[in-house]
Design a protein that fits this description.
The structure is a single chain. This protein is 38% helix and 21% strand. It has helices at 7-12, 32-42, 46-60, 79-85, 89-101, 124-131, 159-169; strands at 18-27, 71-74, 110-112, 135-137, 147-155, 175-184. The chain is globular and about 40 Å long.
Length: 187
């Protein structure tokens, strides 16, 4: 697989060992992608997330590496934010993806233990410091010896997925891939 023209893979190159990396949309200011993701995250539009997740699934379903995926792992949302929003947007996306590629969602094995501030106005270093040590693995046996597909809404610098991925990479015989609804460009 050639990664030279894959923007999301390039974000993680040298930071995480990924089997596969993809994003469905490009995200920038005033784009349709921004409007859709804001509707999902801030306007209680789960339906938008399910639709986007299905489109993500359709986009990857025939990729060779997807056959080896054992489960989808949505990026965990802190309980406080989960209560406020009512759902984890990454889990909603994962539901849509799972309905197309027929893989289980493994969302009870990990947790976000720190409620950190929004990443939107932070620099690359600020984002990394904001997410360092914020995740935990509750049930490692659910994730060990598996190829896991991390699901997230938007990748900007990749700091959050990198922190999460590094934790997963410590598990025995665990391989990881990343699928994001969007990758930020020009932000």
């Amino acid at each position: 697989m050639c990664h030279d023209d894959n923007e999301i893979y390039q974000i993680f190159e040298g930071r995480l060992h990924l089997e596969f990396a993809a994003a469905y949309l490009f995200y920038n200011q005033q784009s349709l992608a921004q409007q859709l993701i804001h509707a999902l995250k801030y306007k209680n539009r789960r339906d938008v997330g399910l639709f986007l997740g299905k489109q993500m699934g359709l986009g990857i379903r025939h990729h060779d590496l997807i056959a080896s995926v054992d489960g989808l792992v949505p990026l965990p949302l802190h309980a406080k934010k989960l209560r406020k929003r009512g759902y984890n947007q990454a889990s909603v996306l994962a539901e849509g993806v799972a309905s197309i590629i027929n893989k289980p969602i493994l969302d009870n094995a990990t947790t976000r233990r720190v409620h950190n501030a929004t990443q939107t106005k932070k620099s690359r270093m600020g984002r990394w410091l904001n997410v360092e040590h914020i995740f935990d693995i509750k049930n490692p046996e659910e994730l060990e010896n598996k190829h896991l597909l991390i699901i997230d809404d938007v990748v900007t610098t990749g700091a959050t997925i990198e922190a999460f991925g590094e934790l997963l990479e410590r598990l025995p015989n665990t391989r990881i891939s990343v699928l994001s609804c969007a990758v930020a460009v020009g932000i």
